[in-house]
Amino acid sequence: MLLPAIILTTLALVSYTIGVWSERVQKVLKLRNAIFFGLGRAADASGTFLMNMIAVENWAEPLEPADGGDRGDRDRSHGGAYRVGNRRAYSQSRNREK
């Protein structure tokens, strides 16, 4: 599913580019340019939809503090450690000593 998403996104880029540059050179928005804009829009929406489907399929478990505490900004008693499944992970925002 990744390859079609990449192809559609690239097709959107090419279609948008053709539409923009042909309008820029001609100094007039013609039907042909609008069609390329429309094709770019459709390809962009389709590629984004496929990428969203990929993201939903690979969705990770939500992070929870390793000590079972609150994830609030004021409570840092967990020291930045979060439990992902059965593993411990460390948040990027924990306080680091300088």
Strand order of the largest sheet: 1-2-3
Mean pLDDT rating:
77
What is the terminal separation in angstroms?
Answer: 45 Å
* Sheet of most strands: 3 strands, antiparallel
The helix/strand order is HHEEE
- What is the count of β-strands? 3
Counted by DSSP, the helix tally is 2
Uncertain spans: 89-98
Structural domain tally: 2
Q: Work out the radius of gyration.
A: 23 Å
Percent helix range: 40-55%
Structural class: mainly alpha
| Strand composition percent | 5-15%
Shape: elongated
What does this structure look like?
There is one protein chain. With 98 residues, the protein is mainly α. It has two domains: 2-57; 61-90, no CATH class. Helices cover 53% and strands 10% of the residues. It is built from two helices and three strands. The protein has helices spanning 2-26, 31-57, and strands at 64-65, 81-84, 87-90. Strands 1-2-3 form a three-stranded antiparallel β-sheet, with no helix packed on it. α1 packs antiparallel against α2 (31-57). The radius of gyration is 23 Å and the shape is elongated. Mean pLDDT is 77; it is low at 89-98.
Helices and strands, with pairings:
Elements: H1 2-26, H2 31-57, E1 64-65, E2 81-84, E3 87-90
Antiparallel strand pairs: 1-2, 2-3
Helix pairs in contact: 1-2
